[in-house]
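Hey, quick one: can you model this chain's 3D structure?
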Amino acid sequence: MRPMMDERYRCALALVPERLPGLVRNRAIVPHWTGDGDEFWYRRDGVDGYEYILVAPETFTRRPLFDRDALAKRLSAVFGAEIDLRTIAVTTYEPHLVRLGDGRAAALGPDGDSAVPATEPALRSPDGKTQVFRREHDLWLRDENGEERRVTRGGEARFAWGAPSDYLRSNLPLAARDRPLPPLATAVSPSGRLLLTGRLDERSMPEHPFVDQLPTDRAKPRLDPFRYHHIDEKPEGVPQLAIIDLVTGDQAVFDDEDGLTEGLAMTHLDTVAWSADERFVYMLAHETGGKTAALLRIDTRTGARTVALSETAEPIYEPNTHEYSLPLLHVLPATNEVIWFSQRDGWGHLYLYDLGTGACRHRITSGDIVVRDILRVDEQRREVLFLAGTGEDGGNPYWRRLYKASLDGGAQTLLTPEPADHELKAPAIAFFTTIFGGAADSSISPSGRCFVDHVSTVEKPTEIVLRDTTTGAIIGELERADVSALTDAGYVFPQQFQVTADDGKTPLWGLLTLPADPVDPARIPVIDLMYAGYQVVTQPTGFLSGGGNPSWSQLGSAYAALGFATVVLDGRGTPGRDPVFRQWTREELDTPRGIEDHVTAIRALAAQHPELDLSRVGVTGHSYGGYNSVRAMLSFPEFFTVGVSSAGVHDARKLPRGAWNWHLGSEDPKDPGKLVALGNLRLADRLRGKLLLVSGDRDANVSLDHTFALIDALIHARKRFDLKIWPGVDHYSGTTPYVRALMWDYFVEHLLGEKPPAELPF
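Sure thing. Here's the predicted structure for all 762 residues.
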């Protein structure tokens, strides 16, 4: 007997992406290198809670890191409350310091234990002896004796040194508005002597009206505006950079005409590099959508800038095809060289340049690959370890694989040959880790002799192994994921598929999830879980891993519980592939811009699975996916008949400056006609199916006026639609059971043809 709809909802709510990790034991571990050779410890999921294992790679011996009960007793005494280390994570364990996942810390010693008070956020010098912190609108320095002194002057509101921009604070309300942050756009030199910092001039920046409809401290709504430049507004203020000698107090302050400050704040902190004598600092000057990128050499005494090397590419240059990953750039100060990324030969490779002359010496990497992340550069061995995707062997080009290559060219070794995804910890953008946390030790040991590899596919649970970096040989198995609770909950494993695009030659890869217990086995409706953006790869590539938007792309099993088949696809115009594939949708303003690949793929899947009902195809997505889910319905109204669009960027004119540069180039001003063509409003009269628009009223990333603009266009086109506004929800917090269930209601009623449960089953 098939389950009733309320039971299907209960099962689906147990399988939403935010709950899946809790149903798997030991899907992933984070190695914490102790500093004693290549020894490391990690937390595992034991039968009765967290356990901590210390590993000696040389002999591959494993033993408990500490006595869990004894440590819990000591910590309970310190904090005056029971500490259960079976459920509270230890995040730092050093001889005299323990930090917990809830933020508490304790100093442990033979003469007694004590709590470590919380400190204000600060940027530590490489030797850990000094801290740089923000006070009012300037930066201050605290030395190891606790003495403080001011290091910048002249900071003011909206023109403050090391401060987050007003737009970014509103853009990321989850963390940035609720707690103080360490200095942003700020870096300390390796010796700890020099400080590089910047400030954005937002004093004349226009205000974007924003209303908090439900403030917690009053009945009346509160106007809470933030500032940013819309795409057609020209900035007036000029950012500044400063290089400060923390010993002498000497400063070089200069106007930043190259956009370095914004890049430093957002993505490039990790690619700031200093010459061996710290006479120069190197920074990447590049704007998304620009044809040229340059590595600038900045004199740390005067601020004078020269171009160390540059590359111009048509139609655009990209320092990494994955928008939210670090630029593929690494300066080698000892040898005056730099590793540089380019797609000039039709793939995505690393090249070695001479910093003195700016001349390219040779290509480092080889083959039909696209480099994704630089994990380690060993200047002594003249080697680089990097993650890349490839389709050379007929495998999934989105699988992450670890390679080793000689900086001197000619020798490249694949260290992870298994046909699977290999998940290693890649360096993350410093801004994101500051806001959201998640910074962790590298997957590669301090000596570079071994690494921790998570091996899996979407259909094969994770095996975690320790490997040798010389040959890739497996030293030993660390963990194997236990998915018994997941399968008991009704999880359905997705199936990887490959089809051909409508050009007859381009391979498309994606995931198909079929319901185990469909309502009608002969006629199963299909939902496209769509993002279709140039920014990230959408589909998961490993077991519950990979993919740029897991809260949407990993919904397949939940929808399967309801009776739907789902598809996740990365069509042309998305990252991780060759430049032709990658840039196929650039400046394609009046076309579906890659969505036709989704139609082609679903039709090809239906030919292989005749139970898929092509008369009932739905689409849903969030943010850029919310935009594309509507565009799919308007571009292919006869194919996509039901859609749920969440926080879609429907009006290109309403996004901040630079948001559409990948499509239109970095030149300003933008052509108003092209902005109209990019948006969905002009296509409103093409709506035929059932469309639900949803948005949170606290969303500052894609503000509510985007949805209102589309509503207005639909009204003028005399089209019916449905609307739900989530009060108090921002761009990131709309994944509650209530929100999930109400969006499912729409598909259950209009695509599945069933009645949603009368009462929400949670």
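One thing worth noting: The mean pLDDT is 93.
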